[in-house]
Structures are given as structure tokens and as C-alpha cells.
Amino acid sequence: MNCGELYNNNGGNFFMIAAVLEAPRRMDLREVEDPVCPEGGLLMKVEASSICSTDIKMYERGQRDLVYPRILGHEISGVVFEEDGAGLQVGDRVQIYPGVYCGSCPYCRRKTENLCEGIRIIGFNLDGGFAEYLSVPEQSVKNGSVNPIPDGLDFEEAALAEPLGCCINSQEMARVQDGDSVLIFGAGPAGLLHAMLARLRGASVVAAAETLDSRARLARSSADLVVNPDRDDLFYLGMDLTGGRGFDVIILASRDVPVASELFSLLAPRGRISLFSGLPPDLASASLDFNRLHYREHMIVGSYGCTPAQNRKALELISGGMDVRRLITERVSLRKIWRGMEHARGRRGLKAVVTDFG
């Protein structure tokens, strides 16, 4: 099967439908020339591309790794449509790790490929999955970024391996382990993935702080305590839940939480704070009491994206029974992608997924 089998709509040139972001708040659904199957790589027919909060951020105001014009979408699964010596078969079901890394820099050699000095990212500075077809470069194939989808797992579930991989990175950095008490700020899709993952990693107590009542209700099946910090006394309830120790780990799965002294008052000695979400400029610079970190041995750790190994681990967890399907609250066609974007932007539910690309 070759690229010529994509539909022809203009005198011999071949076109597909894609959602193209031209500039902040300028995304057009239009025909673009079909992608080329790269030498040593593959061409994938996209079957599911979920909408991430980062896609909303890029649509509204850009992002440091974004290059315009761009087809967004980095949580992607589909079917091999064409391959050029990639070692895969046409028709194979695959999920894509979006980082295209060099494999040879110091960070890649340490297996921290998400920090690669020359990384390119599908959906950021390479075209992504809000389109009928996706070109996957040889580098991704050679470096193990094309992951077979296990039998019994559908495309929608597989597409959520990448965001779950990001949660794995965060929790590995924060060393979530047996017996830990964990507080998660934000009960959106990432927050709920964090809650489920913390349980799998052995956390004895999981709490969530969420101001949106509809999301707080959904979090109750995954957390021992759900608090609205705008109405409830989070410090009192958190200390009561942890027997006065405070939490071993606090994960910021929300962009709206300042890293301030109030946050550290919730931490147990040797507690860790994970900066999972990027912060807006007005919250990114904080004044901290470093003596508190010194005397109580507190730690702050960042996490950005995930490694290919963490992405593969996420796919294994989902295949092993981790219920990510309940996070999907909206399915849209590519032609109705604005409905999915608004579902995510307005926090009307949890995860919106593009599933129809015709």
C-alpha cells in the first residue's frame, strides 16, 4: 500500500484533512498535501488522537517547543498504512511516543530521552495527530518509539499511554512508594491518572484537591479524600487524614497552585513536591523559606513529558487492566474538533478524543 492510495481531489495531487494551527487562536480545518512515508520510517493512519491540556495552551497562547504552522496532537494511536523497511507490517496497530530524540547525547545515554539536547516532538515542532495520516520518521522507528498495541486494547485506550507515561515520570521523580500519603492538586484527566497510578505504586492514602464540583465527584472513586480548597480547610482535613504527619508527596496536576509556604505546611518531613504542570508566569517565580527545606529535608522535583520506557510501561499498565476508559467523556470527529477542544478548555468533562477522521 502506498501514499498514492490517499484520496485525490485536485488534479493528481493527494490531500488529507487536518486541523492546522496557524497562530494563537487561529486553527483551520482544511485540506493539506498528504504526508510522505519517510525513508526507513512509516506512514500511519490515525485512529485516535486525544486532546491534551497542552493542546489547549498551544491553541490559546503558544508553547516553548511549538513551531507554526502546526498540526497538533501528540497522544496518538493508529494503523501502519505504509512502511519503508521499518520492520513493521501494513495493518499493524501502533501507539506513538511523540519525542523524536537523537539517542546519542548525554541525556539519551542516561535514558532520560525526554531531555535530549536535540529532541523534536510530534505535535509541537513536527506535525501531529489531528489529521488523517501521520508521518513517523526513521529515528522514531529505530529508537523504539513505535509501540505495538496489545491485543484487547482499543485505539482510544492506547492513545492515553502517553499522558499516563508523563504521570509515571512525575511519580518516579517524586519516588512515590509503598505506604506513602499522596495529595494531588487537580482532578482533571492527569489528576485522576495520578490517583490511579499512586494506588498501583502502593500509596496507602490518596487525596485530591479540586475546586470544580463536577470533577470532584468523579475523583471520589479514586481518592480517600476529596477537598475543595476554596470551601474546605485543606490543612485541617489533610492533617486529620495523615495522623498529623502531613503528606509524603504533593503532586501539582493543576496550573493554578502557587508553590508557597502554605503548600509546604502540608508536607511531612522528607516530603516531596512534584511540579507536574507548567506554571503561568505569575506563579512561576516563588519566594520560599529555604530553611524549611533544610530542616525538614523537603524536596521539589520537576517533570516534563516522559521517556519512551515510561510510555511503554504505561501501555503495559493499561493493557494489564488500568481503567483509563472512564476518563474519556467526549468523542468527536476531526471535522468537529472544535467541540472537543471546547470540552477540554471548558473542563466540561475529562478527556476528549478524536476518533473519526473521515
UniProtKB/TrEMBL annotation:
- CDD domains cross-referenced by the UniProt entry: iditol_2_DH_like
Query: Could you confirm whether the keyword 4Fe-4S appears in this record?
Result: no
Keyword Metal-binding (UniProt): yes
Q: Which InterPro entries match?
A: ADH-like_C, ADH-like_N, ER, GroES-like_sf, NAD(P)-bd_dom_sf, Zn_alcohol_dh
User: Per its UniProt record, what Pfam families does this chain match?
Assistant: ADH_N, ADH_zinc_N
The residues covered by the Enoyl reductase (ER) domain are 19-354
Q: Which key words tag this protein in UniProt? A: Metal-binding, Oxidoreductase, Zinc
Q: Which domain of life is it from?
A: Archaea
Q: Identify the PANTHER family for this entry.
A: L-THREONINE 3-DEHYDROGENASE
Name of this protein? Zinc-dependent dehydrogenase
Q: Which organism is it from?
A: Candidatus Methanocrinis natronophilus
